[in-house]
């Protein structure tokens, strides 16, 4: 059984010296019992003192300890500790009210988090604009003093900067109508991709173009639909890039100057030097994707320029000797 | 004499049915010529589709025309009246590297050259006799022979007659 005694009721500690017949004891004299002072229901004890007996010589040590504690009266200082005062009310938050309060606190916390997060996003958009400006300034500077760094480095660095982003992307908000939006967008896409498409043999798959444009636009992302619609306006606007669909359904953006006969000539020349061609070889030679390489070969096959050898080793294209021999 | 394969036989796309119809038309033309030349060279009057599979493959370049391709070639031959199916299952066909009319004329010239007009000779004599071994129609399939002779009948140059279980022909 545990017996608890608050030290604050102890007024005096006294040692009862023993003799041959009885052992030494410690007598704790207690303050008179007072109901108002109790924080919890006491076991009623009407005695004014307690005697403690010790079996093995711990008596003097215990007496020292308890006297020290009584002198310090440390329970009083603990009672006024602020953290304990603060904690005290939370212990009462139980039941339905407590749960409701906790939920409400959580909601408030979340909404403040969201606010902060969106503030960050706005910052990021602002920053992105600055970054694009910075990139433009830097590329202009490089243009001005081209002599300082080697030609090769300049070109490389400039291409990085240019691919960094689109300055002031066209948005739906900035346009008066959908039509204007698509027109503007078509122009933006065409001017942004012109160099990239020229570098990749005059053709670029629609999906690649979409990714590039969206990367450059940073946070003003385009939906695939908007992008597609804008691309369909390109031919009408007489832009240097047009959108076309291969018979297989593959959509590409193509340089207007890159006519089909030009494409055919390029592949034919390659075919002459190699006797036979696979889509992979064409894609490697012209730095285009395999899908596009395939499309070019199919296109030439449809025009009767080449013929296919479809075996377990894959699809290989040969010059159309059937036609030329006739 | 060894059969000389055409250049197409070593051209891998020859063994892939070309999807471009213009190209395919020329490809089938080449196939028709190959089949007829091959049969003429080997004196094949009846082509068994299953057995002639080696004609449609080139082991040296490890290519083989697909079943669909073979069917297309045969369809094309049929369209140009260069084969005729012997059975509805389309397992065998007569190959007309000469058509029945040409065969008829050839046989009739042979018969008149040999002074065989107004005499009766059996089918066996015409296709397997000692005298015809050097003729082109030696070993000719009987059904083809009948077709050839019927073209002669139509122009009153011959008459097919039956005697004692044997079949024969009388040239006029």
From TrEMBL, chain A:
Domain of life: Eukaryota
Subcellular location: Cytoplasm; Endosome
Pfam families according to UniProt: EAP30
Main subcellular location: cytoplasm
UniProt KW ATP-binding keyword: no
Residue span, GLUE N-terminal domain: 1-82
Gene Ontology cellular component annotations, sorted alphabetically: ESCRT II complex; late endosome membrane
InterPro entries linked to this entry: GLUE_dom, PH-like_dom_sf, Snf8/Vps36, Vps36, WH-like_DNA-bd_sf, WH_DNA-bd_sf
Residues annotated as transmembrane: none
Record-level Gene Ontology MF annotations: phosphatidylinositol-3-phosphate binding; ubiquitin binding
Entry keywords, A to Z: Cytoplasm, Endosome, Protein transport, Transport
SUPFAM superfamilies per the UniProt record, alphabetical: PH domain-like, Winged helix' DNA-binding domain
Gene Ontology BP terms: protein transport to vacuole involved in ubiquitin-dependent protein catabolic process via the multivesicular body sorting pathway
Family from the record: Belongs to the VPS36 family.
Complex formation: Component of the endosomal sorting complex required for transport II (ESCRT-II).
Job of this protein: Component of the ESCRT-II complex (endosomal sorting complex required for transport II), which is required for multivesicular body (MVB) formation and sorting of endosomal cargo proteins into MVBs.
Protein name: Vacuolar protein-sorting-associated protein 36
TrEMBL record, chain B:
Cellular compartments per GO CC: ESCRT II complex
Record flagged with keyword Transcription: no
InterPro entries in the record: ESCRT-II_cplx_Vps25-sub (IPR008570), ESCRT-II_cplx_Vps25-sub_N (IPR014041), WH-like_DNA-bd_sf (IPR036388), WH_DNA-bd_sf (IPR036390)
GO BP annotations, alphabetical order: macroautophagy; protein transport to vacuole involved in ubiquitin-dependent protein catabolic process via the multivesicular body sorting pathway
Keywords: Protein transport, Transport
One of the record's GO molecular function terms: protein homodimerization activity
Any single Pfam family the record assigns to this protein: ESCRT-II
Gene3D superfamilies on file: Winged helix' DNA-binding domain. Chain C. Domain 1 (1.10.10.570), Winged helix-like DNA-binding domain superfamily/Winged helix DNA-binding domain (1.10.10.10)
Membrane spanning residue stretches: none
The family this protein is said to belong to: Belongs to the VPS25 family.
Protein name in UniProt: Vacuolar protein-sorting-associated protein 25
Native source organism of the sequence: Daphnia pulex (Water flea)
């Amino acid at each position: 059984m545990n017996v608890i005694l608050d030290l604050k009721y102890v007024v005096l500690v006294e040692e009862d010296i023993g003799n041959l017949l009885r052992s030494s004891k410690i007598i704790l004299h207690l303050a008179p019992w007072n109901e108002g002072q109790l924080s919890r229901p006491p076991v009623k004890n009407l005695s004014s003192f307690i005697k403690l007996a010790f079996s093995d010589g711990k008596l003097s040590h215990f007496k020292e300890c308890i006297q020290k504690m009584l002198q310090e009266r440390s329970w009083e200082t603990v009672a006024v500790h602020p953290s304990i005062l603060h904690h005290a009310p939370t212990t009462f938050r139980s039941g339905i009210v407590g749960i409701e309060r906790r939920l409400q606190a959580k909601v408030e916390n979340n909404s403040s988090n969201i606010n902060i997060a969106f503030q960050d996003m706005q910052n990021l958009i602002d920053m992105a604009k600055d970054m694009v400006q910075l990139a433009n300034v830097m590329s202009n500077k490089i243009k001005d003093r081209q002599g300082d760094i080697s030609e090769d480095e300049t070109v490389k660095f400039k291409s990085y900067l240019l691919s960094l982003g689109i300055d002031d992307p066209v948005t739906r908000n900035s346009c008066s109508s959908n039509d204007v939006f698509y027109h503007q967008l078509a122009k933006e896409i065409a001017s942004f991709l012109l160099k990239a498409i020229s570098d990749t043999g005059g053709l670029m798959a629609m999906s690649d173009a979409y990714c590039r444009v969206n990367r450059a636009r940073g946070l003003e992302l385009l939906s695939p639909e908007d992008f597609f619609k804008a691309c369909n306006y390109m031919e009408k606007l007489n832009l240097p890039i047009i959108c076309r669909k291969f018979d297989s359904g593959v959509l590409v953006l193509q340089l207007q100057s890159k006519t089909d006969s030009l494409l055919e000539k390029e592949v034919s020349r390659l075919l002459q030097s190699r006797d036979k061609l696979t889509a992979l070889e064409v894609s490697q030679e012209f730095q285009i994707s395999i899908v596009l390489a395939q499309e070019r070969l199919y296109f030439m096959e449809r025009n009767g320029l080449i013929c296919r050898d479809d075996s377990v080793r894959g699809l290989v294209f040969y010059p159309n000797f059937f036609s030329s021999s006739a | 004499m060894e059969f000389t394969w055409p250049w197409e036989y070593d051209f891998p796309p020859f063994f892939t049915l070309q999807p471009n119809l213009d190209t395919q038309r020329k490809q089938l033309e080449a196939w028709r010529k190959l089949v007829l030349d091959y049969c003429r060279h080997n004196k094949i009057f009846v082509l068994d589709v299953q057995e002639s599979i080696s004609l449609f493959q080139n082991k040296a370049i490890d290519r083989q025309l697909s079943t669909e391709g073979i069917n297309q070639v045969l369809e094309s031959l049929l369209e140009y009246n260069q084969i005729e199916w012997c059975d509805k299952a389309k397992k065998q066909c007569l190959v007309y590297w000469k058509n029945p009319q040409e065969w008829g004329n050839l046989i009739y010239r042979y018969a008149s050259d040999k002074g065989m007009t107004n005499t009766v000779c059996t089918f066996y004599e015409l296709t397997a006799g000692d005298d015809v071994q050097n003729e082109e129609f030696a070993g000719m399939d009987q059904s083809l022979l009948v077709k050839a002779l019927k073209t002669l009948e139509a122009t009153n140059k011959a008459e097919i007659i039956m005697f004692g279980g044997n079949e024969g022909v009388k040239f006029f």
